[in-house]
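Appendix C reproduces, verbatim, an entry submitted by the partner laboratory led by Prof. M.T., so that reviewers can inspect both the input and the predicted structure.
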Amino acid sequence: MAFDLVVGRQDLLIDGKRVPAASGRYFETVDPATEQSIALVAEADAADIDAAVRAARAAFEGKWGRMRAAERGQLLLKFAELIRQAEDEVVTLESLDAGKPVATIRRQDLPAVLDTLTYYAGMADKINGQVIPTRADALTYTVREPLGVVGAIVPWNFPLMIGMWKIAPALACGCTVILKPAEITPLTALRLGELALEAGFPAGVLNVVPGFGKTAGAALAEHPDVDKVTFTGSPGVGREILRAAAGNLKRVTLELGGKSANIVFPDADLDAAARAAASGIFFNSGQVCSAGSRILVHAAVYDEMVERLVARATAIRLGDPRDPATGMGPVVSAVQLKRVLDYIDIGRREGAAIVTGGTRLGEAGYFVRPTVFAGVEHDMRISQEEIFGPVAAVVKFTDEADALRIANGTRYSLAAGVWSNDIARMHRFVRKLRAGTVWVNTFGPTDVRLPWGGSRDSGFGREHGDAAIENFTEPKTVWINTGL
């Protein structure tokens, strides 16, 4: 049943209440598929961040801090159930805000949100310490305690899913959260905050403060009473957050950019490789930090792989995200549209060949045709810089050493894919790749049970699994003199 959505004016969510920004300012959000206004959203700045931090600190020191871990787990399960019941509304909001096809949200984003919540609901009462024998006259043990107030800054490419990657483990650990969604995709974050209250989370446990990075984001990163910042976004902003966090030496986790290599050897299943390579770059209009934007293909099968990629790209149905048959929607904003088209022009000027796509579709909406560049050289900007759009750069290599040189030859190290039926080669190659995640004969799947992250310009720290528990807790050592 379709959800009849009326968005209207959206205020901040602080201390369990929807409130206007202290400044009284609002900003407009736009549907990327139509360029039409969706809503006016309250614009948080430093004063609102301070109010949210005070509310989060009070909740942490109060009822939330006294709650049993098993009770926190039950609230997370209730939260998941309410999101499941509100599926039509949540999916529609995400599609309107981010231009994502509804079919994609139902297939990937929403199930990932629910899986993340249920996984960490089960973890809430299993955050254990250890008894560590040291001396006969002492009982010594460790406990893990919640860090406190967490600032979670979420990007616009997966606002719902990445938002929950941060919310669920932080709450499971007993922290409180100030969620700062990207200003161009704030709507599902605000709805999640309301559903959390409905589930029974005390006021102040989850606060949602839409606003701009240079005001709301900077204030959150700098705030002296925030204990942890978890950020997903660009390397440039990540560096700014690190500098801001130095004031009180708050803990920081950064998941940043990528320029992931998807490497196809001549003995690979080319049909499967082409299918996954196309999905790896065109999924979510290429707006994925781990997108396989560099497709490295052995010279022996290069031309055939380019042909297969072109066939896949031209078969993608580009259009209305609310149509269940749509395979790819628009990029998220006019700014992103210009960025992607500018990079396409750069690739053309650098001498790469556009074999399909390369243009905007229509005059309304931020649609870019799926684009494949052939004849790409490793040192071209379209092979080195993150475009964050539906643009594949197909690079030729000659042997394993050449492939490894190219694959490791960027500032990023988030993810990579390897396609081969030679098991010895796969093990050998995986060991040498600089990537936080390596997929073999597939590309792109993630799971909340597995660590996720990279190094260099891809950030540091890991999300998911046990790593997230470490992100939001710290160990305490207890030494009891037994007098023996």
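DSSP finds 16 helices and 20 strands in the chain. Additional entries are available on request from the coordinating office.
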